[in-house]
Design a protein that fits this description.
alpha/beta, four-stranded mixed beta sheet, two-stranded antiparallel ribbon, 18% strand
Length: 199
């Protein structure tokens, strides 16, 4: 898993990769004559935390293979990340259909992977900060980008059920959503067969 990094980190990675490839080890002192000591520490912390380099010993590092780095930018991280949140949430809409249908219906691909999540209006600042700190693009009510992103849906009250470790809209709410659109017919049938037809 890798995380998108700012341009200064990308340039540092390009320099280290060009100079050392993916096998040769290097120290932080590699950047001594280029940037200040505090900036050097910031760069190495960023590259390490975001998966662009790895520690090979106490003071030595190696570059992560660039093919793996680029592919890793499109890895799915949101589901496990959301479980670590301190505030309540509920996967809703098509995301709830995915979860209740045991992912027999999947709305995502590496190219476009939206998650629809209800959050309390009073917790919106927390969620924006939480997602931004984890470099997850996020929007309120609508938006989109390449790869994973979260659509936050602020609500005054929040209710949810737990399914496979996720907080999600109720089964009945999700059944109604799945029945509303023919595109989700397979998921709707799956949910009905597994849980029964009653709403």
């Amino acid at each position: 898993m890798t995380i998108e990094i700012p341009q200064y980190g990308l340039k540092a990675y390009a320099l280290l990769l060009t100079k050392h490839g993916t096998k040769e080890k290097f120290k932080q002192s590699e950047l001594d004559w280029i940037v200040s000591s505090s900036m050097k520490k910031k760069i190495f912390a960023l590259l390490l935390r975001c998966g662009w380099i790895q520690k090979s010993s106490r003071e030595m590092y190696t570059c992560t293979n660039p093919v793996g780095v680029i592919r890793g930018l499109l890895d799915f991280r949101v589901p496990e990340l959301v479980k670590k949140a301190r505030q309540d949430y509920a996967f809703t809409g098509l995301s709830a259909v995915e979860i209740w249908s045991d992912f027999s219906y999947v709305q995502r691909s590496r190219e476009k992977s939206p998650y629809f999540i209800k959050v309390l209006r009073k917790d919106l600042k927390y969620w924006k900060t939480f997602l931004n700190q984890n470099e997850i693009p996020n929007y309120i009510k609508s938006g989109g980008t390449i790869g994973e992103y979260v659509i936050l849906i602020p609500v005054a009250k929040l209710s949810f059920e737990e399914k496979d470790g996720f907080k999600v809209d109720s089964l009945n709410e999700t059944k109604i959503k799945a029945k509303d659109n023919d595109v989700y017919a397979y998921a709707s049938d799956y949910i009905e067969q597994k849980y029964g037809a009653g709403v």
